Amino acid sequence: MIINHPLLRGRILKRYKRFLADVRLDDGRELTVHCANSGSMRGCWAPGWPCVISDSENPKRKLRHTLEMTHNGSCWIGVNTQHPNPLAEEAIRAGLIEPLRGYPEIYRERKYGGNSRIDLLLQNKTERVYVEVKSVTLVEKGYYAFPDAVTARGLKHLRELAAVKQAGHRAVMLFIIQRSDGRCFTPAGHIDPDYAAMLREAENHGVEILCYRAGVYPGEIRIEERVDYCYQPAETLAGD
Question: Into how many domains does the chain fold?
Fold first, then answer.
C-alpha cells in the first residue's frame, strides 16, 4: 500500500489528547498534526524519535498533516490505524493471505451482529467469511501484543465473531502488525484480561486467528509474512 500524499520527516515532540502530536520537521518548523490512533500508543513513541508525517494538501482540514510512523532505533512503527483495513483488503485481493484465498467478492463495512459493521466480508458461491481487522503496534518483552489499552469495542467484536461462527459462517480475527521487532503474537492479558480471555473463548468457538506482519517503510506499508499466534499468560508480559 502506497501512501499517496507528500511525506515529511522530523522528530516527534509529544503526543497528547489522543489525537494530537507535536512534531519538529527536519527544516526546523514545528507542527501540530493529527494522530489517527485511539489507543495508548504504548511503546510507539518517545520525545525525539524520528517520525514521518503526511501532508493531505487540504488547507480546509483543521489539521492538514497526519502522523504516519515513528522509528524506535530498530524499526519503523506504523501508528496510523486507518491503514490496516485497506492494507488487509489489498493483501487478500493479491492472494498474500493464504487462508483467505478463493473469495472473489470482497465488501467493506457490512452490517452484522448487534449494530456493528464487519471490516471485511468475503464471499464466493458457497461461503461467507467475516473478517475483523485490528492494528497491532505494541511489543511487550519481545511479543507482538494487542490491545495496548482496555477495549470494550474489541471485546464486542469478538463476541459477534463467535456468534457468526455459531451461525455457520467462517469468522476470522485478523491482526495486522505494523512493526518488525517482535517474534510472535499474543493477547495483552496484562493490559486487558477480559479481551485476552475472550480471544481464547472465541478461538474455542471456531473463530480463526490470523496474524500478519507488515513491513513499514517511509512511503509504503506492505504485508510480508505470517506470524505465529503464541498465547502468553499475563504474568509473562507484566512488570519490568
Answer: 2
Task: Tell me how far apart the alpha carbons of residues 154 and 199 are, in angstroms, rounded to a whole number.
Answer: 10
Domain final residue, candidates 78, 108, 128:
78
Residues 57 and 136 in one domain: no
Are 62 and 152 found together in one domain?
no
Do 61 and 112 lie in one domain? The reply is: no
29-59 residues labelled b (16+ CB within 10 A) or e (exposed): eebbbbbebebbbbbbbeeeebbbbbeeeee
Domain hosting residue 167, numbered range? 84-237
Burial of 77-105, coded b for 16+ CB within 10 Å and e otherwise, reads bbbbbebbbebbbebbeeebbeebeebee
Of the candidates 196, 68, 70, 89, the residue with the CA atom closest to the CA atom of residue 143: 196
Residues 6+ apart with CB under 8 A from 102: 124
94 and 74 part of one domain: no
Digit-coded pLDDT (tens) for 66-122: 999 999 999 999 999 999 999 999 999 999 999 999 999 999 999 887 778 999 999
